[in-house]
Design brief:
95 residues, mainly alpha, globular, DUF6922 domain-containing protein, DUF6922
Length: 95
């Protein structure tokens, strides 16, 4: 599958390697992909690969996306809640 430019507007899509840049590709599809992108991702990467990106500490996914994908991939509610709290918790020095 050729990547859609809309997913990688800031990158030359000819330089993206689905294996080498797995985390980057999965994260972009989770954030901006459509059904075709989603199905390609499920065919290309394991569910474990996708779950790892969802739960990654440095993930750029917003709280709504995290919640949606946690439920979609059957990630336990306690793990999902912990991830959401970590994402939304205000840092004490910014108060």
């Amino acid at each position: 599958m050729k990547f859609r430019q809309a997913l990688f507007w800031d990158t030359d899509i000819n330089t993206i390697d689905p294996v080498l840049h797995k985390r980057y590709v999965i994260e972009r599809i989770l954030k901006f992909g459509d059904f075709g992108d989603y199905h390609w991702m499920r065919d290309t990467y394991s569910a474990e690969d996708v779950k790892n990106v969802i739960l990654e500490e440095r993930s750029d996914l917003d709280p709504k996306s995290i919640n949606f994908w946690c439920h979609s991939f059957g990630i336990g509610e306690s793990i999902c809640t912990k991830k959401l709290l970590a994402k939304t918790q205000e840092l004490f020095w910014r108060k």
